[in-house]
Amino acid sequence: MNKVQHEAIESGFLDLLGEPKQEAVVLRDTTNTLIQLAAIYVDKIIDNIEKKDVASSGALSDSVSPTSVSINGTVYTIGIRAKDYASYQDQGVNGWAVNRGSIYSFKTKGVDPKGEMVKSIKKWLTREGNSARNVKFAISKRERRGKQIDEFTRRATSVAYMVKRSGVKATKFFTTATQEMEVYIENELGASLRIDIINNIL
After folding, report:
1. For the segment 85-113, what is each residue's pLDDT rounded down to a tens digit?
2. Positive or negative torsion for Cα 11, 15, 19, 25
């Protein structure tokens, strides 16, 4: 985008934005491109969640969605929404006994049996166990794990303790999707901004 911004500055196009003597310029093609790119971005994120077998991937996948485009003067913004723990799944979490090289860390060893972490793990254990109940022979890693987990749904507190001890391995599902999108975003936004320059100046 830096290259395109320089071209827009040199052309005088940005001077038209917010000009009080005339109707404000709306970057329609750029806005539509942002919406399309966000949809593609979401698809890539969800695809990577599934590929990397992220824990609680069903709930996480369902939570990923784009925001509306926000326009503040010359700044056009669109975001991606996801559950709060998405960053922890992406970057991993250091346990108190294992350093995962993450920016996030579990600070304490204790686990509240009635806390949110235990409740979440109980739901996850139940969901993973249910996914394997109708499988006669576990043919995938996830199904094999599901069969084992189905036997330990009452051990959520112990599991929570081990998670805090060992931490959470980074999956990089979001980081990978971002890297895959970078060049595509640059090319598409560059093209759309040029179109907006042509439509509003020439």
Report:
1. 899 999 999 999 999 999 999 988 889 88
2. positive
